[in-house]
Amino acid sequence: MHKPEYYDSFSCSAGSCPDTCCRAGWLIPLDSETFDLYRTVDADISENTFTDPDGDRVFRLRPDRSCPYLNPDGLCALYIKTGGRLCEICSKYPRFFEEYDGFTETGLSVSCPTAAALILTRSDNPYRDLKRDAPDELLGFLCRARERVFEMIYSDTDPDAALQKLVFYGAELQELIDYGELGLLSEADFSGALEPVANLSEARRFILENTEILSEKWRELLKSGCKAPCGSPSERRNYLAYLVYRYFLKAVNTEDVFTECRFIGLLYRLAASLCGNYAEAVKLVSREIEHDSENIEALLGYLSQTE
Ligand code: SF4
Fold first, then answer.
1. Distance from the CA of 214 to the center of ligand 1, in angstroms?
2. Ligand 1 in reach of 89 Cβ (< 6 A)
3. Which H or E run includes 57?
4. I need a labelling partner for 181 at 20 to 30 A (CA). Which of 17, 28, 195, 275 fits?
5. 35, exposed or middle or buried, with CB in 10 Å at 0-12, 13-18, 19+?
6. Would the CB of 286 count as within 6 Å of ligand 1?
């Protein structure tokens, strides 16, 4: 299992959390083993869950979209009643796992404010010791390319410029993939004519009209935004690297690294344009987009049509 350097430092803030995930508005699937356990300690568990259209048993949210078991102290009533048992999804959160041919990567999601604080405050590259090669030719190519991207991001003082270099590099890599010339990776570089990431106003409109929106705050920020980019250069650099860690290798499934780079660029630019509090902005982008596979699919489709 490969992980960034900050991974093992995470510890849930529980009742002290400034914005608990139990209020994120997500429909959390409850695995059957934990459901059976919860039935022994809570008579209302059947009433407080329902089967969603995918056939999963999920928690029925309160009108304010919080979990029915979130207690006034910001703690999980079921966790307390069972002496420390959470369902599978809740026990893993905010960790995410990506399975690749021959290895697994895990990380922390910036949708959790405690994890975001760990990620955004890094002063150096926490992604140094990741997989550098793989038996699959395309995956090995992407691993080596990503390593160069991390080095570039952490050696460039301007993360906005680093983003443009990333997108340009993504276009160069895409040509090598399309022409079956993976052996020429060292010839791809970061300098050249800048590739546009996306028209931000149009992208916001697309998100408003075509994705599921959980919170009114997100809707309002998408409509208004702010004029000056938010976040310090260091925070933006760490967020860019987080996005690269989370999405760059996914191109092994689509053979479309250019669209992945533009997707990374879109999330980066959205967060920088939302509001004065950068940690709040990246949390919202993550909760509303990253944690909804249909929203991600919609945005990837949008980007591939607007090249
Ligand atoms: S958002 Fe993060 S720190 Fe807060 S309760 Fe959830 S896992 Fe814990």
1. 18
2. no
3. strand 57-59
4. 195
5. middle
6. no
3-state secondary structure (DSSP) of residue 59: strand
Q: What are the φ/ψ torsions at residue 206 (nearest 5 degrees)?
A: -60, -45
Ligand 1: centre distance to CA 112 (Å): 5
pTM attached to this predicted model: 0.93
* CA-closest residue to ligand 1 atom 2: 112
Q: Whose CA is nearest to atom 6 of ligand 1?
A: 21
- Residue closest by Cα to atom 4 of ligand 1: 20
**Are 39 and 45 in contact, with CB atoms under 8 Å apart?**
yes
Residue-level pLDDT, tens digit, the chain, 307 residues: 899 999 999 999 999 999 999 999 999 999 999 999 999 999 999 999 999 999 999 999 999 999 999 999 999 999 999 999 999 999 999 999 999 998 999 999 999 999 999 999 999 999 998 877 788 999 999 999 999 999 999 998 899 999 999 999 999 999 999 999 999 999 998 887 665 566 888 899 999 999 999 999 999 999 987 767 789 999 999 999 999 999 999 999 999 999 999 999 999 999 998 877 899 999 999 999 999 999 999 999 998 887 6
Task: Give the nearest ligand 1 atom to 18 CA.
Answer: 4
